[in-house]
Amino acid sequence: MTARTRNWLLLAPAGAWFLVMLIIPLTVVFIFSFGERAPAGGVVPAFTFEQYANLPARWAAFKNTMTLAPIGTLSALLIAYPLAYYLAVKSSPKWKTILLVLVIVPFWTSILIRSYAWIFLLGGRGIPALLDWVGIEGVRLINTPFAVLIGIIYGYLPLMVFPIFVSLDKLDKRLLEASSDLGAKPWRTFLQITLPLSIPGIATGCMLVFILLMGEYLIPALLGGGKVFFVGNALVDLFLQSRNWAYGSAVAVTLVVVMLIAVTVYMRLITRLGASREDVSIM
Amino acid sequence: MESRGYIEAFTPADGKAIAELRGVSKRFGDVLAASDLNLTITEGEFLSFLGPSGCGKTTALRMLAGFETPTEGDVLLDGEVVNALEAHHRPVNMVFQQYALFPHMTVAQNIGYGLRQRRPRLPKAQIAEKVDKTLDIVQLGGFEDRKIWEMSGGQQQRVALARAIINEPKLLLLDEPMAALDRKLRKEMQIELQDLQRQLGITFVLVTHDQEEALSMSDRICIMREGRIVQVGSPQELYDRPNSKYVADFVGTSNFFDGTVVEQPGPLTSVRLSNGMIMRGTPTEEMSNSEDVSVSVRPEQMTLQRQGEGLTVEVRNRIFLGEHTEYLVNHETLGDFLVLSPRQSEQTEGAFTVGDTAFVSWEDSAALILDRN
Ligand SMILES: Nc1ncnc2c1ncn2[C@@H]1O[C@H](COP(=O)(O)OP(=O)(O)OP(=O)(O)O)[C@@H](O)[C@H]1O
Ligand SMILES: [Mg+2]
């Protein structure tokens, strides 16, 4: 067996999966998006840009996704970084394992159940009631963008913590000593050594969270209560409720395009920040 | 020291104390890594810490650098106690064992790192100029824009050296800087390092467990054992006047005959060996009768003859070393020991072959009576 055939064989399962689960459906969706809605739901093949012309009707979903996904990613990063830093650099080896497990523990229950907990906490009898009690009245949390943001940060935090933790954990501590030895104050060591060397982790974490957030629909559905909805919710609505596949396909294709543009811009930014392309492991 | 081609021989008394350890101990949990260290490091000298693995050399160095605070005692730099002064405030730089170069910076950025931390800021042009000069000193001109991982081990070591010396530290600490290099490169670097030290006039403190390296490079060697300093002195002092069997064994090669002190009539002390034999030698310290000691005789101080006085031995092995021939000989009750025979005596006596019977003798005064512990 030549190395060439062996390489092909190694790639075959992934390639087949990729073809069946990604390329074919995407092609179908792409073709559908130029079709028309069949009277009984589903799609009638055609070649019309009517669906795309209709996109502005779903502008709110795109707007919500395109604001809450980056804000959610950034917020998760700001909370995850100090946590990952503490875990990797400051905590003792014994505590490190315990704390790491604590970060994963939420994954042991379904996001659905955990989001219900948030529905209660953010709902009328949760935090607002508590605020009421201390004299801050009329705060509404549930079904606001803020509630969705809370849910996003909560749900995606571990996904952000892990890649950053890994990049900080494998950071050679002697580099920090060397920096200090050469006269750098602690915060300058952080800015010049720790932060740049953890960019691969930051990049991976952000990419992971951002891409998944673009397709998120459960958290907005539960904590946004139909008021704050994402493109994902629009898709569920169009494909399953109104059964307007042609229009749904156009929305889906647009989401893919938007995502591709966002990721390209993001990669440009990261490469400029000094990390090499290979550092972003998810790509 | 003459052998090193010194124009002026260095003696510690020449300069002022640049750093000092006063009764310094360092404890890690149950481990006493350094115990009551007392040492004065003189400006401009090349001092080595020598000792086996785990004896506390790195710990001593890290306390000078400011990475560890002593549990007891004081660390002084330039006459001031600096126990709790953080590393980034100390005029001391370190070359790390694995170099610890910054992987996300170029060679030039690594070397200029220390200068970029200075406040008030140095002008960019001035930093660039100094980096260029330092690159030349370590013979890395033209490599400034290389990435660290594009450099060989020896080149990386030079970068690490340049990154430290560019700051003109009062004290340059080197933790086994040559351990990762192959033998030939290590020899080259040893010579370069010595040249550099003389050229720059910076005080060097080197950690090594390679006695040859310590002997060939240092003005003074500080021998350590289990967290303690056993003896400090020039290579020659340590070789000629070791204060214990441990030092004599560590510095160079020697033959040891264990016994107890029986008599101290004059300048020489008599020792009764386990086989009942009496040996005489020069004591290295105050000794009392019946103290456990070791008689140490260097192989080159012994003469091997076909006839005459001395111990009767059988030749077991012969290794020709050019100027000398090394014989492994066996004595019926004293066991195996080494004799180094100069070429000249080989020519008069004729070479011995394995199985020959011979006589070994030495001057009583050349034998040293050493503390056995
Ligand atoms: N941070 C630490 N925590 C616990 N024990 C330590 C620590 N650093 C050193 N030790 C212990 O202190 C002792 C001296 O260590 P040190 O690193 O100074 O030895 P060394 O002479 O440099 O050895 P080597 O030649 O192997 O580098 C060892 O027993 C070591 O295990
Ligand atoms: Mg060491």
From TrEMBL, chain A:
Chief location category: membrane
Keywords of the record: Cell membrane, Membrane, Transmembrane, Transmembrane helix, Transport
Entry annotated with the keyword Lyase: no
Family annotation (SUPFAM superfamilies): MetI-like (SSF161098)
Claim: Transport is one of the keywords in the record: yes
Subcellular location: Cell membrane
Family: Belongs to the binding-protein-dependent transport system permease family. CysTW subfamily.
PANTHER family: INNER MEMBRANE ABC TRANSPORTER PERMEASE PROTEIN YDCU-RELATED (PTHR42929:SF1), INNER MEMBRANE ABC TRANSPORTER PERMEASE PROTEIN YDCU-RELATED-RELATED (PTHR42929)
Protein name, as recorded: Spermidine/putrescine transport system permease protein
Native organism: Shimia sagamensis
UniProtKB/TrEMBL annotation, chain B:
Keyword check for Cell membrane: yes
Domain ABC transporter: 19-251
Pfam families per the UniProt record, alphabetical: ABC_tran, TOBE_2
TM ranges: none
Enzyme Commission numbers on file: 7.6.2.11
Keywords on record: ATP-binding, Cell membrane, Membrane, Nucleotide-binding, Translocase, Transport
One GO molecular-function entry: ATP binding
Reactions performed catalytically: ATP + H2O + polyamine-[polyamine-binding protein]Side 1 = ADP + phosphate + polyamineSide 2 + [polyamine-binding protein]Side 1
SMART domains xref list: AAA
UniProt keyword Cell membrane, yes or no: yes
NCBIfam families: potA
Quaternary data: The complex is composed of two ATP-binding proteins (PotA), two transmembrane proteins (PotB and PotC) and a solute-binding protein (PotD).
Function: Part of the ABC transporter complex PotABCD involved in spermidine/putrescine import. Responsible for energy coupling to the transport system.
Stated family: Belongs to the ABC transporter superfamily. Spermidine/putrescine importer (TC 3.A.1.11.1) family.
Listed name of the protein: Spermidine/putrescine import ATP-binding protein PotA
UniProt gene name: potA
